[in-house]
# Entry
Amino acid sequence: MSTGTRIFSAALFVFAVIGVGRFLLVEPEPAVSGERTEQTARRFQSAQECRACHQDVWDEWYGSHHQIAYLNTEVRALSDDFRNKECQACHLPQPIEVTGFGQRTLPRKTRPDEGVGCIECHVDGEGRVMGTRDLPGAPCAPRARDEMADVVHCESCHNQHWTTDQWRASSYPEKGIGCNDCHMPEVARQLADGTTRKGRGHGYAGAHDTAMLKKAGTFTVTRDGAELVLALENTGAGHNFPTEERHRVVDIDYRFIAADGTEGAWERAYRFRQPYRDEPGENTQLPAGERHESRVAIPDGTARAEARLWYRLKPYISDDDPASTLLEEREVVIE
Ligand code: HEC
Ligand code: HEC
Ligand code: HEC
Ligand code: HEC
Ligand code: HEC
# Structure
């Protein structure tokens, strides 16, 4: 064999091996229902892989605070661009199954644009999909895990400021209402065969969603003799209102307007908040199901009173700051 032929056959051989190798690496055909074996089960590493078949779920998740957890400019500012490594454990975590449901997560180094994504919530240490049902015939072969639909799924990351503890202390557990019943509303999923099945929204509306915030409380303003009574009841949040981050604030503000039209200044009747660790004061968040009432003396000559319920993402900002959301407005005619 000439050198040329030898190189040629060697090249052919390498090509053949790569070819066979590539063939072996190619996705196995989806198994017939129930016949998928452990050997052929696929190992998932990125949300992009799920997107190919679950575009609708991807669209809900993409842009959510779970997806942006590591890119979020608010978080970057406070963590010194994640030089504070402690912050990465929940904002760029390893899959929760790896560290254990309900346990503190550990940080990862990859896929910064996937923050808390499909892999972190759905994939176990072996790269297999976890769901609420066993579907061995589906291409991703999800396996049922009881923890998936349980509060323990959220607890690893959401109990730093006691949100899951607040839920446990409320009447929601005995009513059988968990985090997902409010944060993952039911949606219809279109399947390939044209039928639909029940699904769960993956947008996780919370403190950045006005409609969600408006659901949390019932605000009433009434007159009782010479006093204005401003009350807030937590009728719609499954935990304290506001919950989580210590920045979050709910304010009840009011002002009086005199008979001659003179507008008094806006005053604060009450602030619901968990103070920063180094700040004086108690936790005044409103637990689920509880009602708080403030009473203010009505000055002589008042024609009417106005009251506002505010939600603020940060405590020391003005009403016209975009991080302040006006939830409710009330007017009471005095005379
Ligand atoms: C090759 C296509 C494909 C890929 C890739 C894929 N899936 Fe699936 N998945 C399906 C199909 C088809 C079903 C069954 C039909 C349905 O219920 O949507 C399914 C079902 C599921 C279910 C169960 C739904 C139920 O009714 O209980 C979960 C959970 C799930 N997939 C999550 C994932 C996640 C997370 C990823 C990425 C890690 C992924 N899938 C990747 C096609 C795929
Ligand atoms: C134990 C898990 C955990 C750790 C560790 C953690 N966070 Fe968070 N962080 C969360 C969760 C859960 C939320 C969502 C709840 C909320 O917004 O109140 C959040 C939300 C935030 C927000 C609000 C984002 C917004 O857009 O409003 C900021 C800012 C933030 N974290 C900064 C940090 C910083 C800085 C660190 C490190 C000192 C850190 N986090 C460490 C779990 C964690
Ligand atoms: C691996 C950690 C992790 C898990 C598990 C997790 N979350 Fe989160 N979640 C976060 C982080 C981090 C944020 C905030 C990211 C940001 O704003 O930068 C967040 C944000 C949210 C928000 C939006 C808050 C807002 O201010 O808009 C809601 C609602 C939420 N999570 C609910 C849940 C529920 C319900 C579960 C359980 C099914 C869950 N999360 C599981 C880490 C997690
Ligand atoms: C009965 C409905 C309901 C249940 C149950 C519920 N939530 Fe909420 N959640 C709300 C409402 C309404 C808000 C908006 C008001 C607020 O921030 O407290 C909210 C807000 C949040 C936020 C945004 C906080 C922030 O500062 O960004 C997070 C995170 C959250 N919930 C997580 C959870 C977790 C985790 C569970 C389960 C332990 C849970 N929720 C159970 C209704 C519910
Ligand atoms: C914060 C955790 C979390 C993230 C991130 C997440 N999921 Fe889920 N997912 C859940 C939970 C919890 C359930 C089960 C809800 C239930 O039945 O109570 C679920 C259910 C599902 C289901 C079955 C129900 C349905 O709506 O069709 C599919 C499919 C699914 N997820 C796919 C995905 C894909 C794909 C991604 C990424 C684009 C993703 N999930 C991201 C927690 C998550």
User: Anything to note?
Assistant: The pocket of heme C (ligand 5) is lined by residues 47, 50, 54, 57-58, 61, 66, 116-118, 121-122, 131-132, 148-149, 153, 180, 184, 189, 199-200, 202 (CB under 6 Å).
